[in-house]
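User: Fold both of these, please.

Assistant: Here is the first one.
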Amino acid sequence: MLVHLSVNNFAIVKSLQLELFKGMTTITGETGAGKSIAIDALSLCLGGRSEANMVRQGEEKTEVGATFTVDNNLHAKSWLEEHDLLDGNECILRRTITKEGRSRAYINGSSVSLSQLKCLGQLLINIHGQHAHHQLLKNEHQLSMLDQYAGHSQLLVDTRQTYFTWRRAEKNLNELKENSEKNLAQKQLLEYQIKELNELAVGENEFTELEAEHKLLANSGEIASHCQQTIDLIYEGENVNALGILQSASQYLIQLSELDDKLSGLPSMLDEAIIHIEETNAELRNYLDNIDVNPQRMAVVEERFSKIMSMARKHHVSPETLYQHHQDLHQQIEELDCSDEKLELLAQDVEEKYQAFLTCASELHKSRQIYAKELNTLISQSMHELSMEKAKFCIEVTEQLSSPSSLGTDNVEFLVCTNPGQPMQPIAKVASGGELSRISLAIQVITAQKVDTPSLIFDEVDVGISGPTAAVVGKMLRTLGNSTQVLCVTHLPQVAGCGHQQLFVAKQTKNGMTETQMSLLDEQQRISELARLLGGSQITASTLANAKELVVAA
């Protein structure tokens, strides 16, 4: 509930300290006195648009503060707690604007963003302006009002979540489809590359082995010559060879060892060297005998070697890694084949998520239909009380599966019939401004009973209404004020007299500057103000009596 409003240097207000109460508070005053100025200041405090010209002429800045009690407002308390701004059961909003147009916002003394101020403000108070019916003509606003009245917040959350889950899956599917089109060309290229690599059929270590064989074949003559020379030196030389020399040395050692026992171990050591030479010679001879100086094999190796080198250059890899490259291409094409399977699975997932969204949207549609039917009856009755006895009201809830959104699949439209025999038509086509104002008020009064805000402000929503209808409007708002704090700016005495208390707005000039003042009227002052509203400048005993009756009747 709003308990205090502080306004300093706002427009034509120098200073205003206003205490607010439970029930219905009416605000009246002369034309041009600024009856709505407190509402404008409060709107600013709730996050409304700020402009430099809001600062009172000659002042440096405007400052507006609003104090609320939130002990019975669970949504507001939860928001404050979530943002670490809760300070007991009281919430103070403050807004400053400098003459240069700079604005700052505060909640319980902490600096906050404008979006945070707006978000909390929506949980604290609901303002219905005299042009609220312009919003009422918009389908999205009509849908919002129905949902607020229905209170099916969890259905809205579920519908929103399933909608975006479905859309994200659909986006992934579309991206994969686009990629699959690109992959088709890539797959065709891979198939061609793999085909030519399959034809070449490179072995895992083939290039290394070919390289070694090619080196051997290319140097076979030189290798054979060196082998033969080595054999001659160590074994087969006609004049001298290592084996013959060692054998002669061995005979001398045998003779020496017979002369001196200390040398007895040397002949055997030399015999081991002779054995190694014989073994070396045998292996070299065997190697030499098997050297294949084969020009035909050389040509085959060179041709294969050349093909592998050429293919490696074509694929921009080294010859040694061509085999692995071949395997990698196989893996890539397998992955592309898998993407086709993934495309099918993702399409199935999209369909499942779409059906989940439709299920939630269908439940939301059913709930909207139930509460639309309830509102049809209540708002029609409310219109009858506002001197529209033959009028009918209908909320048309139509499923439009071709236009899904995060709010479901429904199109909601408010329809009315103001005269018997006429068809139901959209509220936007109602020609009479007075009828539109009354229809708007009837809707607002009924739906406001379900809106989860502890305070409601009606800023001259009774424009175009007079006589007995005005009395009904006043009683409607007073009934609403019995359970909710209601502030109502009005020019109608029948409405003003229904308030539990009444504020009066006056404009005066001091030192060449205009100032607006607002004060709480006592009973006698209130009767005088109602008499002024009834009779204008000519206040008679009769108008005073009528004014007193308005207060008593309330």
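And the second sequence with its predicted structure:
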Amino acid sequence: MTVSAVSPHRMDFKGQTWLFCSEKCRLKFQEAPERYRAAVQISTTSSVAQAGETWYTCPMHPEIRQLGPGTCPKCGMTLESVLPELEQEENPELRDFSRRFWWTLPLTIVVTLLAMGGHALNLFHGVLQNWVELVLASPVVLWAGWPFYVRGLRSVLQRSPNMWTLIGLGTAAAFLYSVVATLAPSVFPATFMMEGRVGVYFEAAAVIISLTLLGQMLELKARSQTSAAIKSLLGLAPKTARRINTDDSEEDIELSHVHLGDRLRVRPGEKVPVDGLVVRGESAVDESMLTGEPLPVLKRVGDTLIGATLNTHGSLIMQAQKVGSETMLAQIVQMVVQAQRSKAPMQRLADVIAGYFVMVVIAIALLTLIGWGIWGPQPSWVFGLINAVAVLIIACPCALGLATPMSVMVATGKAAGSGVLFRDAAAIESLRKIDTLIVDKTGTLTEGRPAFQSVEAVVGFSAEEVLRLAASLDQGSEHPLAQAIVEQARAKKLTFSTADNFESASGIGVRGQVDGYQLLLGNTVLLADAGVDYAALQARAEQLRSDGASIMYLAVDGALAGLLAVADPIKPTSKQAVQYLQDVGVRVIMATGDGLTTARSVARQLGIEEVHGEVKPQDKERLAADLQAAGHHVAMAGDGINDAPALARADVGIAMGTGTDVAMNSAQVTLVKGDLLGILRARNLSMAAVRNMHQNLAFAFAYNAMGIPLAAGLFYPLTGHLLSPIIAALAMSVSSASVVFNALRLRNVSLDS
């Protein structure tokens, strides 16, 4: 038997949810689950293979899962794959809707122009114009709009009325009424005859279908980007690994062929294939893509390696300890997926009320038909039919359906012009409720790249000479700290000397000879190994470290010459942004992978009281989840891959446009300039947009509250007049235009105050 995806008869077994047509079948399965499970697997082998074994789910109702694409039986929304593939073809439904839209758009335009001005141009006479409009509108309504009617019918069969029910009902009513008026105009009273014909509404049905197709195309394109974060994460992993066999020969193999215990070689410039341990070699590994730490980390024998991180220089031999779904990268992918699916679906007011609204409108139309048929003047049933159609036309969900989307469209356009990109309407609606902001440090509050801060010299050396010697020694190094020193020397237009016998002591500094002097440039470990006394500048170094700087000492011929400080500078607007957020009652929390001392230093300068340092991606995600569990509305602002799980978990994820693609794809809001003041603009726009949505919805409901009784003929005893479907269609158009014009007012909203 066919089992509904929303069947209440279900059972969890071995990590899968099984659905049943009845409680009796569920109990049978419970008695011998393995036997039935094997039978189901055998009988569905072909269908699973055809579906590519890809599970699809509804973004609004995550409990809906099925093999292969389709639509949600609850809301009619197009299902999307739970875990997208890196190489995925264009959405087949988007391709289908685009074809239907573009092929029928000319017909919609022609029938609309004909309905609006055909009589003035005297192109056709009398009922002939109705026939021409019927021929033009039929392909639009019957072919282009066919998927909407299928969804509308399904919503009725599933007893889950939604917007498809309204769209199908409204367009079908307008089209069928017009068909009857064209084929059998004599059934209508003479008062409905104008210029030798009964007024028809083919253009209303055609325009609604075309606009709905366009809206679906835009929605499908936007929703296709929701999986971009996961695709970006999956794309980080290298495709191959270099395995060392038992006979010490080496070969390149696919990543999926790496097993626990395999020895792998990681050459300079290559990505680490899987998680494991260093068994030979020494190198600096850039882990910023996963940990947020801006500087490469020294790896020696016994140290752990994380898959997808970058080996900057030196050759490493590692032993695989975690492969496949056990690697940190795979765990982050799973966290992003789970966080996205665990979000409560956005319940738009229009959709909540639409289910009741549909039933109410149908009931009113039926009562109108019956009431006029029994008690109305002759021909009573014709009057009843006309008034019932007028009720359906005037209650068409155009204004109700446009109320939120139009506000969203104008708001997103306004935001884009101000450097703020919203992913969806849910972000616009949610941002105004935020009371807690978790913010990353590196690249979010700070610039995200080391910059020269200061130079100190001991007696006998000048600051300029210390900088020149250090830059001359470092000019051949690609280390970020070295580049900051070299750039500063070039800015000062200092003369560089050639460095001889250059040697890198990975992780602690460099050695070499410049102008005949033997130089050491690095941290305290390097100087201590060489027996250099650095006590003269130790107090100053500690002071600079407390301000968030990284310190490098310079020794010349075995004696201390000075120190250089390099730091990740705070963005000029960060303090102003933090102050604004705190002034409006938002609690700001810093969570960073950097050391706690540096993090506290930055937090102190910005006035942030709560700081979490040396946190991993899962720690940030857990912090957001804990705050949500405590009843807070949480936003997360970050720029790195390590922020992706928390960005997905938070009620609103805010990414820096200057950061990684993964962060931007995980977030619902992107600040293009990487400027936290963008949160001010985004929050102000959120408040204005939601207020505009409420105005539109209130107008749409008020319009229906007044228009439906008028269309039903309740005022006929007082006025002696009925509302013609022509006037009903005009009123419907005016209501939609009013919603659009009200939404356009958002273009004039000030976002900086």
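The first helix runs from residue 23 to 31.
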